[in-house]
Amino acid sequence: MQVGAHIREHRARLALSQDDLAARIYVSRQTISNWENDKTYPDVQSLLLLSAVFDATVDELIKGDVDAMDKTVNEDAGKMKQLEWYALACMVLGAAALYWAGYQFLSGWAWHTIPTVMHTVTGWTALFVITHRIEKLKRKHDVITYSEVLAFTRGERIDRGTRASRRVRARTRKQRAGIRDGAILPLINFQGPPSFSMHKGNQL
């Protein structure tokens, strides 16, 4: 991904430290470091704030990343679909094995029932593992971020229903609150010009 290098270049151009930039867009210094080292990817709101600080467009910041993001999103969508088919197969086979194990048990328990029970347990265990993997893919933060950034660049509606999106929105609200407070507090603290007393002090 190129966004980290672009952030680093613009930050150096403006002679900003990571702490300085973090303060301007209301994130932590570690977040800036993670972006610059390609550990995480900035969400749409962060990209908009960065573009304002750097006087650059979002397209300039993510230049070279769109194809890579598109590929990652499509690959994960393919993995998800494949895992869903595996889960369905495990569910059907597990249910069939469970039914057969029950039939064998009612017909008379014997050693030949043990392999059926083992197949049943294996099938349902595999289903649990696959389901966990599917949920992990759904919660994968970078893929959610990539999807939202791609939707933004294409002028499409951003899906805000996922848990990861809700976490991003919560941080976005903090960023907006920081911007609002930064603009309002100076006005609140402004006391106006100093007043001078018109009364003369007591004279001896």
TrEMBL record:
InterPro entries linked: Cro/C1-type_HTH, Lambda_DNA-bd_dom_sf
CDD domains: HTH_XRE
Domain of life: Bacteria
Gene3D superfamilies from the UniProt entry: lambda repressor-like DNA-binding domains
Position of the signal peptide: none
Residues annotated as domain HTH cro/C1-type: 7-61
Transmembrane segments: 85-103, 109-130
GO molecular function: DNA binding
Keyword line: DNA-binding, Membrane, Transmembrane, Transmembrane helix
The protein, known as: Helix-turn-helix domain protein
